Input
Amino acid sequence: MGITKADLFSEVQNEMAAVAKAFSHPARVAIIEHLIKANACINSDLVQELGLAQATISQHLRELKEIGIIQGTIEGSRMNYCINPGRWKQVQAQFNTLFDQFKGSCC
Amino acid sequence: MGITKADLFSEVQNEMAAVAKAFSHPARVAIIEHLIKANACINSDLVQELGLAQATISQHLRELKEIGIIQGTIEGSRMNYCINPGRWKQVQAQFNTLFDQFKGSCC
DNA sequence: ATTGTATATCGCAATATTACGATAAAAGTT
DNA sequence: AACTTTTATCGTAATATTGCGATATACAAT
Output
């Protein structure tokens, strides 16, 4: 039905899925990578860099901000977006906790 | 439009997004975790474990198999699913390559 | 042979996501 | 003040995802 039955799963599982979803679109991956390279960037930079419309970029930035991976500070008429270092480490740890659960062999 | 403009992004970025998408649903996270705990499991185990219909579980298993994270071997009338160790390490490395690109400070 | 178990796939309905034009709001520029 | 730049949000269309009932197939058991 397109609706996820979130109540069937644990808090941790839902959180893991929500965080992974932030990385599940190439535009958001590209935004993150550009943000890392440039240290910081603004919406209109990304409109140039990627070939997407301003409204679309803004929407992706909001999703990344909502999950906490990036943060934006107002700078006059523009927004200065950058990685949120604390959250970044936290998310990396979250993934590695899952990855490290599997040690070894298979059937 | 719901259509992702994959041609705007690099191969690596599209791959990263595709892999992240595998983890972007709590049912798939739950399947992976159960698969790790049990070492291996079958479709009907998961129907019991999670509260989803058999057809739904099967669909999620297929998506995980398509991205290569899990593999299934036929065992009589059932499928024995388990983590694909090689691919698992590869995916972990893929995430950490992205995570390690960001070192340090922010705006 | 018939019945039961296990899984995959099809078809559909409900919902979510992606993309963008249009517009609004806020700050800087002339 | 009028204009430009920058961004966010709204509304909408196109497409994707999620979930499941209803099958179909394959093997196992009686």
Residues 1-4, 25, 27, 52-56, 59-60, 76-78 of chain A lie near DNA strand C (CB under 10 Å from a C1').
